[in-house]
Amino acid sequence: MITFTFYLVALILIFAAISVITVKNPIHAALFLVLAFFSSAAIWLLLQAEFLAITLVLVYVGAVMVLFLFVLMMLDINVAPLREGFVRHFPIAVFVGGVIFVEMIFVLGAWHQAVPPETMTNVPNIELLGEVLYTQYVYPFEIAAVILLVAMIAAMALTMRPHTRAKYQKPEQQVNVRREDCVRLVKMQAETKD
Amino acid sequence: MEALLYLITTILKIVVIVLPILLCVAYLTYAERKIIGYMQVRIGPNRVGPRGWLQPIADTVKMMFKEIIIPTNANRLLFVIAPMLLIGPALAAWAVIPFNAGVVLADINAGLLYILAMTSLSVYGILIAGWASNSKYALLSTLRSAAQIISYELPMGFALVGVLMAAGSLNLGEIILAQEGGILHWYWLPLFPLFVIYFLSGVAETNRAPFDLAEGESEIVAGFHVEYSGMLFAIFFLAEYANMILISALAAIMFLGGWLSPFQGSFLEPVFAWVPGFFWLVAKMSIFLFLYLWFRATFPRYRYDQLMRLGWKVFIPITLVWIVVLGIAILAKLPPWFA
Questions:
Q1: pTM of the complete model
Q2: Which of A163, B75, B165, B209 measures 20 to 30 Å from A14, CA to CA?
Q3: Candidate CATH numbers 1.20.120.1200, 3.40.50.2300, 1.10.10.60, 1.20.1630.10; the one for domain A1-115
């Protein structure tokens, strides 16, 4: 049963991954990438890595790909100009593809193919992961977190420009507006018509 | 053979869970129209059947026989798939919801994470629907809705982190058991800010008033489902209400003790001992569902910048601070919750 599920999911994964680079419409490509993430999450589930599988769906499918799609949908993408210069770039593409192919052969050839160890304990792997992350690898973990934080703040600092001429709302002042600030009652004598 | 038997019993269990949910959805629309009607001093639907009780059935039949119109230049496949992508996660999330002690379809350890993952998927239905319709209003609503759902997922996630810290488990059944001991032991009290923020973010996540910018009838006609008709439109509605019920169930489980009796540990406990746990869960869910309808009848719609400001500048800082406070309370073994 598990073998059958594995082959089914793996076939879907390969199909989706090939479709990502072959379909013409970028939105379709992004959606196929979502399918590929899903299938790999399913394979991780079969390996009893439920935390990694659900995190993959939560982070990549639930957040990263949504932002991708968000940006893609705002662009008015014309497919034809993208295909210009295909012949000119073809040799470079073949070269890059060849280098990646050779690299992957070396990596996979040197890979020590071991059977994934059977999980013996009844402790859920989230607890095990947490224990390892917060004791043995606590410094690398914290350093990675700080690097990400710095990157995030730097990106914001680079893109945020002070408003100079643009008008924008200041909510803290908006909510403090009182009737006396906006309305002035003027007493005046009734006037006659002449 | 054994695998086949397992498959069949699981499918039967799924049917037993999904059918009542769909029935609840149908009657939630009726309850909404009735309750909002009374709040606005009207009667609401009262023509079909006694007191209008058959109104949802009539609506469903009407929707089924309406024509499904697909706009020219729409992406046909994605246009049809989008509503299904919306209802799928809404129903799939029910797999880990415990209805009573031990009554749950999949008792997995990462239940809370699974719920978060499933609720974060619902945005795809909206995104694809808006894009595939090939319509300005639908696309505008899609962009609004995607930004809104991503923004409100963060405070929601932080609120869940608080629950996880307090209960020390990601399993929903264990989270409920950690709250044992009567109404004052439930997590709504020690996690009060997270409780409020969780439910309000849930209202925003389900695109309900006053955060229903994605629909905004007055500005973008009806938002992402403006091009849909017939049964496809009905599925959008179904998904929205199924999500409302799901958020209510989760709030009841994580902050109001799920199927636990509110009178545990008091002199009233033996008096109410005959009440099944399932009843308490439904009663707690009804409170939240009523709040949903009450909000809709009471509050005007938020402006978009106000919505974003509320999410990023109010909710997220409060949750972050409260997680630190909670950490201190847990370290200090604050009775009665963390002793």
A1: 0.83
A2: B75
A3: 1.20.120.1200
